[in-house]
Predict the structure.
Amino acid sequence: MTEILYKNKVVGMLIRTIKSGSLPVTDGRHPLQVVTLKHPKGKYLIAHTHKPMVRTTRRMQECLVVRKGRIKLDLYGPDNKLFKKIILKAGDAYLSLNGGIGIHVLKNAELMEFKNGPFLEDKVII
């Protein structure tokens, strides 16, 4: 996992490799929780559910996972200024914590996007 910094603040995380075990990627206080899981054949992860609880978030976070293809992300800081461009390929993921993104499809792509909800029409074009 590589932290993406803007003005000494973590605004995103690039995930290219996964270490063994069940490991949290995000700080427990972030609205979107990301955990990587890498285990050998035969491992059993205990069945579980989660208690219904009220969870309040004040900012959107999203995680893009590239299943196929290749994309370029334009990364924007919390002040909406473009500060970096990165390339993602199949198997890579990017977690946007604080800021914005623009997506260029470089090779036919399949992406999955995960974000905290519920869905609200709140998109602000940069």
